[in-house]
Amino acid sequence: MQIGKQQMKLGAFFMVPGHHVASWRHPESQTDGILSFDIYRKLAETAERGKFDMIFFADGYAVHDRDGAGIEQSVNIRPDPVTLLSALAVVTKRIGLAATASTTYNEPYHLARKFATIDHLSSGRAGWNVVTSSSEAEALNFSKERHLEHGARYNRAEEFVEVVKKLWDSWEDDALLINKETGIFADPTKVHQVDHKDHWFSVKGPLNIARPVQGHPVIIQAGSSESGKDLAAKTAEVIFTAWQTISEAQAFYQDVKGRLKKYGREEHSLKIMPGVFPVIGRTEKEASEKKQQLMELIPEKVGVGLLSALISYDLSEYPIDKPLPELPDIKDINGAKTRFQLVKSLGDREKLTIRQLYQRVAGARGHREIKGTPIQIADQLQEWFEHGAADGFNIMPPYMPGGLDEFVDLVVPELQNRGIFREDYTGTTLREHLGLLRPANIFQKINV
Amino acid sequence: MQIGKQQMKLGAFFMVPGHHVASWRHPESQTDGILSFDIYRKLAETAERGKFDMIFFADGYAVHDRDGAGIEQSVNIRPDPVTLLSALAVVTKRIGLAATASTTYNEPYHLARKFATIDHLSSGRAGWNVVTSSSEAEALNFSKERHLEHGARYNRAEEFVEVVKKLWDSWEDDALLINKETGIFADPTKVHQVDHKDHWFSVKGPLNIARPVQGHPVIIQAGSSESGKDLAAKTAEVIFTAWQTISEAQAFYQDVKGRLKKYGREEHSLKIMPGVFPVIGRTEKEASEKKQQLMELIPEKVGVGLLSALISYDLSEYPIDKPLPELPDIKDINGAKTRFQLVKSLGDREKLTIRQLYQRVAGARGHREIKGTPIQIADQLQEWFEHGAADGFNIMPPYMPGGLDEFVDLVVPELQNRGIFREDYTGTTLREHLGLLRPANIFQKINV
Questions:
Q1: Which domain holds residue B121?
Q2: d(CA B5, CA B260)
Q3: What is the pTM of this model?
Q4: Does A75 touch chain B (CB under 8 A)?
Q5: Which residues neighbour A317 within 8 Å (Cβ) at sequence distance 6 or greater?
Q6: What is the CATH number of the domain that holds A256?
Q7: Is residue B160 in some structural domain?
Q8: What is the pLDDT of residues B157-170, one digit of tens each?
Q9: Which of A208, A308, A386, B248 has the smallest number of Cβ neighbours within 10 A?
Q10: For residues B23 and B211, what is the distance between their CA atoms, to the nearest angstrom?
Q11: Where do the Luciferase-like domain residues begin and end (chains A, B) (predicted)?
Q12: Which among B96, B190, B200, B198 has a CA at the least distance from the CA of B153?
């Protein structure tokens, strides 16, 4: 291994039993005890054996595609990931633990405390993927008639993160004294009310838990719209994105890294990690057969439903073997705008029918699919990593645990041989794995 | 052990490093790594060795007694207990896992999902202590100017529990088919929208996790006001209470059990478990010395602050060695009314000064203190258990882990010898430990 060579970051994106919409039908996915802890424990142990920077969970607050096919033919149940992270902290030692929690239907005080709790229990391994909730189905589960429009969601998210960071800082690192003799538990001059009062929130504080081990758990974001990019440049330390081509990924990378200066931040303070969906075979032929097998397992209704959800537009009444119909203008989409654009351009560019399009995106759900032998997979990751398109990748195995095992056993050693991925952990916190600085405390007076 | 003899239920009420306000100064409490998982892991292992029905955590969403003394001299930090439970599920096998979560500042969808997650991860061991939040300090952490008044809080709590139960029932027990061959994941006729719409909440559902292993996690409550008793009679399966004398406890027991019929419930479907604060010595003298040692460790300001919080009335300006001043009428107390009444009657009855009163309640915080040798402790528990005052007890060790070790090593064997506590677990779920039936699903059609 070349010393000092820059190394890629890797996230293990857990979705049980896999990222492919038909994963649950795959012979190498586990569906027995699909909500039991054993599945997650084994996946976490595998990811840690593979020296991944972190485990990552997406989330949502509603069943998707609520019609008959969605419930009948796809996986519509999952544990609450924030709750699950804490259990995974117990069965792992070094790997980071990141989960999604929405700023649209939560309270800053609760999320600040939950992620602080996980950071303490795991000795500094927590990460929070900050998202906004954009589906109507979620609004209806939280006593709202409709979901917030795009601008308001991001505005609320920005203020939400600000409040959470203040709460994490409300106890300075050295506030706890715990001196049994003198009876002094904490230094009250180092415990602060946050007195936040703005458009969305008014929060007095302090939080009722000490500052997290990492100062702040790592802040992750995924939005790629204009507001999303700006929020990320201001507050994110990791961005998960979805790009199909290296040129799109490079443009995004340049764009977001370029915005950092405006907020007084260095380039390396933000890691950009596109999602990749690896289909791995010992030969190219085997990889192609695997892909074909997965595509054939997709039920039609599920495929159309998934595509409709991706572009926030109902395609169920259109002929499945014809191209996409005329779609609304992107301005009128109150959903994930970037995802809409991505799918629409892919359909236009390659003149795909609805069926072909859902077969294409159903797997990786808009993320980049990479297919081939372990060497070919490593080549594709290395290319993006070394050409300004990515600081690392969020790995989305098509089926689990099989697909994660293959990546760890076949691809990770290849990346290690090339000197572009760690042989072992050198740090103990997620910040250390990612090469991110511990944030200063806004309440702390600097002694000169 | 007499077969068939009725046995008491025991909760291990975890508060690190103990229930006494000065516990953290006690030589046998652990304060190193006070937020690390190791402390909790060891306590959970001890409680499970002691065959407790469940571990229990209280909670609150603000630091208490925010002035200098509260922060300076008492323990004002704790992990989020719901998050913590999930980690404890991994290191235990049989013991129940219960935590407090407030209906005042949460959303039913989130809590339904979190407790369902813990129930799945623990194979049926979750319990939820349903509370309302009554402190001004909490309101100010959730963008509210003042907290809800007593009636509205209980009204919201009742509807909250109703929504949560509907969400737990939204997937019938046999909704999941997961047939890889036919491609049928779930039976859509067994997955239900809940379509709840009432005063406080409108929630469409279904939940995005399958029905909990226990049907519903066990519902616990603690309120003892009129509204609290009625809510408990309608919805609770366990009540934690605070009584100083057997006659008060018997009256409460009669009262609440008597209300069950109104809601079509049997007497045994609700377990009443008063809190007890055991000070255990190998001799009576040793127990008294331990008590004295704890009392002397209480700093004055902390004692007065604690008493003030208990009665929702600021006593800091009154002379500490005089009796309680004239207090407002109970009608005007917008806090825990029962606790107010309890403390006020104790002060009046025994003509205690503020100092004496805080020394008395600071330990058990209004709960019953029992002191003595293991045999005397067992006698006091047995007396209440056999005379219609309790179905079991929530044990609140003054300091931890020492006080829990003593209870498990010295008192539990004595209770087992008397045949009034289990020698080992016979069931695997918290419901089974407590002798509670698995609830029917409101959406399930009964086949005749």
A1: 9-170+197-281+367-434
A2: 24
A3: 0.93
A4: yes
A5: none
A6: 3.20.20.30
A7: yes
A8: 999 999 999 999 99
A9: A386
A10: 40
A11: 19-388
A12: B200
